[in-house]
Design brief:
The protein is built from 34 helices and 26 strands. The protein is an alpha+beta fold. The chain is elongated.
């Protein structure tokens, strides 16, 4: 039988223990049987193995094959420069592997963070005596002592309680402290039982004793830890797109290389020359600089996002956030401030906003007993810190005590004598105080339980009998306040004779109602409005009460309709996966009272519907969902270490509005990747055409493999990065998110890069190559030695032309549709740096002995530069005409 369904004696008996605890010898035996009370770590792949995997994916295998063929060619036909090629390709593999490893690497800190949340020592009963032991030594059957401020180290069944209340927010998401008693519970789950306290939570007020029934990974806390550890790593949309792109490009390159190798063999090319040709085809079509460029671009985006208070822990999350279609947001501490405050009063028969108290001084005098009650009726501790008196305890009581002290003024002469503590049956607490007017009883609690103990009510005109009309007004006021998401408490008082406390607090005067709220963050409504404008759906997923959740959702603009769908955790538990997915079709839906695994179910259901899901949260209970989502967003200030370790992105200011800024940057990242992908792929065609011409028309090879690598990893790298640093388009947050089916490598991008820009560059490069050969009196069919000056000048001219056209192309790629004249040459200082770096690299390659030796080049004349620049200008003009035609087609 479930332990929370048993009474205290039966619970102790079920664990073979007593109220005096277990013997030390039995504790040692149980510790050996059940193990230490700490969280175990699921075995993971060794770090070195994960690092090695970065060098064995499909993209890397293609390059390994190319390097192996190059070394084989050098072995069988020395002196052809193939060894240098092999070394260069291996260098590319190493660079890509290191960058990819850092991109994928995530430190496994969630378990360590969970351990840090648990207390190191606890007070327990062993051998009938109170002893202080390590939390890791707790075993089932131990009796632990609970006091205000204690963290709870294991799942326990309460056997003795005096005003005991616990903060469950880190495990269940509850924003309000929950009372605990010793009575058996009919609840299905221990999470909701009033006689259970859970590991990882804390005691807000009161004291008690409890028997440990679950330790370590058997606790609810441990179960959440297990969910977090075993939740599958979710690849981001960008990771999936890059992997798809890598397979397509690598497969295409390999297929073309093998096919044309066979063609070369068929037409009688020498084997090693033909192999060189095949390797050249593969290298020309594989964008070796793509992965490093993507990674560095994401890293630059993380720096921009950090300046906007969003810290990225996982690089692909940058783009994933930009493609988010749904945000599942926690309520407490994310949409709200996670602190209780008095919002509204009902006194004298009318509502009074808290903000108006200062302007209604006469009310303070007329209803002073209400504020005295709020100031005195609590279980808070007052501690002096740095010369200030700070209240510690339940946030709700702190809010009441603060406004009570502020409004009641001087409380000299008031002292507390006795207390009737709060419990879940009474739903109220009372304190007996000595006052200048004599002894007074002050009571606060739920209206339905306080109202039954009152005989009079305080209106502005004075005391009045508490008749049916007054009761109706009170209940209507409570409903209106509760409908606004307020936690409503009733306050009552009466004079007391010298004999002591009156039995069951009868005949009191109802002084009024106070409504408290966990107020929404001021910036959240605007942030939600921007998300809605950007086509992003927001769903509240909270452990709090459905009525509170709905009221907050209305306040912040998340819910606008009259009848939104509100699903409780119990309803969700009974839903099948299909029913849940159908329920998520509702335009406005809120999930309340949900547990950790249920949050995961919601995320998984949304992903099954094709949504790209972001989850926000700050508690331990949020960690599994944060890890399962496409992107997890944790709060940096109020969030637990567990949530931060499981998240991809951390909001440094706990500001929901920072998510909007991060989404804007994320959307810009995807667009920027497309820009530099267009730029990088454009140069593949002028790298490929020379090899096709070489084998089909038997001309000298216009571009060597090392020169191709010089373009892909040398001249193109920094300009591509500059495109990755482009600022977000002002209109980016007015467009809906891209669909999951939208590809990074679209047909439009392929057509523009390969069939237009690439062809123009190839025509220019080949034209300049033949111009140099013609000027050197070369005739078709003449043999040119690869060390001959004319050949070196011609290949250098071909390489220089590709670089010059790419210098122009980087500006053309800044926008797929807008004219270069509309955004000019400025606005991105990295572009100027990239162009200067590109120019420096090509000058090194062409005009230094080291560059000439390494890349097989020779200096070229000014005429060649002029011709290359003219070709680039012509390319710019043709691209501008194409964009203009497209704009007219779109507008038409």
């Amino acid at each position: 039988m479930r332990i929370h369904a048993l009474d205290a004696e039966q619970a102790l008996a079920s664990l073979n223990t007593s109220a005096a605890g277990i013997h030390s010898s039995e504790a040692a035996r149980r510790l050996a049987e059940y193990g230490p009370n700490h969280l175990e770590e699921v075995a993971h792949e060794h770090l070195l193995l994960r690092f090695a995997q970065e060098f064995t994916h499909f993209f890397a295998i293609i390059l390994w094959i190319g390097a192996a063929l190059a070394f084989a060619a050098e072995h069988f036909d020395p002196g052809q420069g193939m060894a240098r090629l092999g070394v260069a390709i291996v260098g590319v593999i190493i660079i890509n592997g290191i960058f990819s490893f850092w991109q994928e690497y995530k430190a496994e800190r969630a378990v360590a963070a969970l351990r840090q949340l648990l207390p190191q020592k606890v007070k327990a009963l062993r051998d009938g005596e109170i002893v202080e032991i390590l939390a890791s030594e707790l075993v089932p059957g131990d009796i632990v002592l609970l006091e205000e401020g204690d963290f709870i180290a294991a799942d326990c069944r309460v056997i003795d309680a005096f005003g005991l209340r616990v903060n469950l927010s880190t495990v269940t998401g509850e924003s309000l402290a929950q009372a605990r008693n010793i009575e058996p519970s009919a609840e299905e789950l221990p999470l909701h039982a009033k006689n259970i306290v859970l590991a990882g939570t804390s005691v807000v007020s009161g004291q008690g004793r409890a028997v440990v029934y679950a330790t370590g990974m058997r606790t609810e806390f441990g179960r959440i830890a297990h969910l977090t550890q075993t939740a599958g790593e979710t690849s981001s949309p960008l990771q999936r797109e890059i992997a798809r792109l890598s397979r397509i490009v690598a497969g295409l390159a390999t297929g073309m290389g093998v096919t044309l190798f066979l063609v070369g063999q068929a037409i009688g090319l020498p084997t090693w020359e033909n192999l060189l040709f095949a390797i050249g085809i593969i290298v020309a079509n594989v964008p070796e600089g793509l992965l490093p460029t993507v990674t560095l671009s994401l890293a630059m985006a993380t720096q921009r996002m950090a300046r906007r208070n969003a810290l990225v822990r996982h690089l692909p999350a940058v783009e994933a956030l930009g493609s988010t279609t749904v945000i599942c947001s926690d309520k407490t501490g994310t949409l709200t401030q996670n602190r209780m405050s008095v919002h509204q009063l009902w006194v004298g028969g009318a509502f009074l906003p808290c903000a108006d108290l200062g302007m209604r001084a006469h009310l303070i005098d007329d209803h002073r007993e209400l504020f005295v009650n709020a100031a005195l009726c609590h279980n808070l501790k007052e501690i002096e810190e740095q010369g200030r008196h700070i209240l510690h305890g339940d946030p709700m009581e702190i809010a009441l005590a603060e406004i009570g002290r502020k409004m009641a003024g001087d409380l000299e002469g008031f002292s507390r004598l006795d207390e009737i503590p709060f419990d879940t049956d009474r739903k109220r607490m009372s304190v007996l105080c000595e006052t200048p007017q004599g002894r007074m009883l002050y009571c606060k609690g739920a209206l339905e339980t306080v109202l039954a103990r009152c005989q009079f009510i305080h209106f502005d005109a004075g005391l009045a009998p508490l008749d049916d009309a007054a009761r109706t007004r009170l209940l209507a006021a409570q409903d209106e306040m509760a409908g606004a998401g307020l936690r409503v408490l009733a306050f009552a008082h009466r004079t007391v004779s010298e004999e002591g406390m009156p039995e069951e607090e009868q005949g009191m005067v109802l002084a009024g109602l106070i409504g408290l709220e966990d107020p929404p963050r001021a910036e959240v409504p605007e942030a939600i409005a921007r998300c809605v404008a950007a086509g992003i759906r927001i769903i509240m997923v909270t452990g709090d009460h459905p009525r509170t959740a709905l009221a907050i959702a209305r306040q912040i603009g998340m819910v606008r309709s009259e009848q939104p769908v509100v699903v409780s955790g119990e309803q969700l538990r009974l839903m099948s996966p299909t029913q849940l997915q159908l329920a998520l079709d509702a335009p406005e839906i809120i999930f309340a009272r949900v547990a950790a695994e249920q949050k995961m179910r919601i995320v998984e259901a949304l992903k099954n519907k094709g949504e790209i899901v972001a989850v926000t949260g700050d508690g331990v209970n949020d960690a599994p969902a944060l890890k399962t989502a496409d992107i997890g967003i944790a709060m940096g200030i109020g969030g637990t270490d567990v949530a931060k370790a499981a998240a991809d992105l951390i909001l440094l200011d706990d500001n929901f509005a920072s998510i909007v800024a991060a989404i804007e940057e994320g959307r810009a990242v995807f667009e920027n990747i497309r820009k530099f992908l267009t730029y990088i792929l454009s140069s593949n065609i002028p790298e490929l055409i020379p090899y096709l011409a070489f084998v089909l028309f038997r001309i000298p090879l216009p571009l060597t493999i090392l020169q191709i690598l010089a373009v892909d990893l040398g001249t193109d790298m920094l300009p591509a990065l500059a495109l990755g640093a482009e600022k977000p388009d002002p209109a980016v947050m007015t467009r809906p998110p891209r669909t999951r089916s939208e590809r990074l490598l679209s047909w439009g991008l392929i057509a523009r890069a390969y069939l237009f820009l690439g062809i123009l560059e190839a025509v220019a490069a080949m034209g300049v190559f033949f111009f140099v050969l013609e000027a050197g009196s070369w005739h078709y069919g003449d043999f040119l030695d690869r060390h001959q000056t004319l050949y070196l000048e011609a290949t250098s001219a071909c390489l220089a032309t590709i670089v010059v056209t790419q210098m122009v192309n980087v500006y053309l790629c800044r926008h797929p549709l807008h004219s270069l004249l509309s955004y000019g040459l400025g606005g991105n200082r990295y572009l100027q740096i990239g162009i200067l770096a590109e120019l420096a690299v090509i000058l090194f390659i062409l005009y230094t002995p080291a560059g000439n030796w390494l890349f097989g080049t020779a200096p070229i004349s000014g005429t060649i530069w002029l011709l290359a620049t003219t070709c680039a200008a012509a390319m710019c003009l043709l691209e501008e005409l194409r964009k203009r035609w497209l704009r007219q087609a779109v507008q038409g």
